[in-house]
Write a structure and sequence with these properties.
single chain, 396 residues, mainly alpha, Receptor-associated Protein, 16 helices, 73% helix
């Protein structure tokens, strides 16, 4: 959901921004993390289809990589932004870079310039840049963010690549079923018209469905297309996705892995923020958006405990935001004073566990899926040929 926010900036100027958030509380947290004092907030109505929504496409990871290369080459911040803006032919990317260039010429810092575009530059990136502006070590901030995104991308690619083959199997199986029901079964129904009374019940039902699809092919196709569009639309609604996520979380094996995946992103983000000098409580608030609503409520309780002086490890453990191994690693980080490094190690430990589970699940699920598709298609073929077998038996 998108929320239109009017807020007061530190320079006592009123700005209007749009935040993409799960709910009003999430939008409020994003605005406060950007250093804004919210005056009013309203939800933007959006009735367009998902594929028609206008989105600001800005390659943030590529921007960070190019900025790092130019900074390491000795260019100043303004020269680097100007160079990146000049190489763009136009479009939203050029407009965003021009905005940054103008703001820098007016004397504002890079983080302040990025705060004007929260839909382009997330609060995490802005805070990382702001933490290094006092020391002038912007390349270090860019390097940390690039490493952070690369590590997250590795896990995402692992999950996506593991899901490609099952999706292809389901798609091919659905096409074969549509071909059988829409073309082959109606042909067989014409052959069996004269012996309709002697057909087995399941065969009669199958052939009847084939004749129905043949007679109402256009209407059935439109209904199928409308159902696909409705399913895609429902999948983009926040409440529906939350409901699906809640049901998946109730499945023991899948829910635990979903929890570990979110905790891995959460701890990796915390580690990067702490390494950049962000206070623990502020970092917790900024990383809260990475968690599901259930874990977000637990994090709020943990943050309150930390504000009251409780140890991070105890607060996280009391609110079910750790595992036994992660709890011990947090305690080691507290004793050594290297909490940022230890949180990144926790995230790496979770990532490895998720990768092993994805490999195991893929090796188990793919054969089962092939078996189910084979049984369904084979059942249809057997039902089509069953009358032939019975006729042959009666002739003998």
């Amino acid at each position: 959901m998108k929320f239109q926010v009017k807020a007061l900036r530190e320079s006592d100027t009123i700005v209007s921004m749009v935040f993409d958030a799960a709910d009003r509380d999430d939008a409020m947290r994003q605005a406060q993390a950007s250093g804004l004092a919210v005056l009013s907030m309203s939800r933007e109505a959006d009735w367009r289809l998902p594929g028609l929504r206008r989105r600001t496409k800005f390659p943030l990871a590529l921007f960070a990589q190019e900025m790092l290369a130019l900074q390491e080459a000795g260019l100043t911040l303004v020269e680097a932004i100007e160079g990146l803006a000049e190489k763009e032919a136009g479009g939203p990317t050029r407009a965003i870079l021009e905005h940054l260039k103008i703001q820098l010429h007016q004397g504002r810092t890079l983080s302040q310039s990025m705060q004007d575009l929260p839909e382009v530059f997330p609060a995490l990136f802005v805070s990382t840049v702001r933490a290094t502006e006092r020391t002038g070590d912007l390349p270090d901030a860019l390097r940390r963010y690039i490493a952070y995104e690369s590590q997250l991308e590795v896990v995402r690619k692992k999950i996506v690549s593991a899901s490609i083959y099952p999706v292809l199997l389901i798609g091919v199986g659905a096409l074969v079923l549509l071909f059988l029901l829409g073309y082959v079964v109606p042909k067989f129904s014409h052959v069996y018209e004269d012996i309709q009374g002697d057909l087995p019940l399941l065969s009669r039902l199958l052939l009847g469905s084939g004749k129905f699809l043949e007679a109402n092919g256009m209407a059935a196709g439109l209904v199928f297309l409308a159902a696909c569009v409705a399913a895609v639309r429902l999948a983009t609604l926040t409440n529906v996705r939350r409901w699906i996520g809640t049901r998946l979380w109730s499945v023991p094996a899948i829910g635990e892995r979903m929890r570990l995946y979110q905790l891995a992103r959460f701890y990796r983000t915390l580690g990067m923020l702490l390494r950049g000098g962000t206070p623990v409580v502020t970092a917790l608030d900024m990383a809260a958006g990475l968690l599901s609503p259930a874990l977000r409520a637990s994090l709020a309780l943990a943050a309150q405990s930390i504000r009251e002086g409780r140890a991070i490890s105890d607060a996280m453990s009391a609110n079910n935001l750790t595992t036994p191994v992660a709890l011990r690693m947090l305690r080691v980080g507290e004793r050594s004073g290297r909490m940022d490094e230890m949180m990144e190690r926790i995230a790496a430990f979770y990532d490895d566990e998720i990768s092993r589970w994805v490999d195991w699940f893929t090796r188990l699920f793919e054969p089962l899926l092939m078996a189910v598709i084979g049984v369904v298609i084979g059942g249809i073929v057997v039902l089509m040929y069953l009358p032939v077998f019975e006729l042959a038996g009666s002739i003998q």
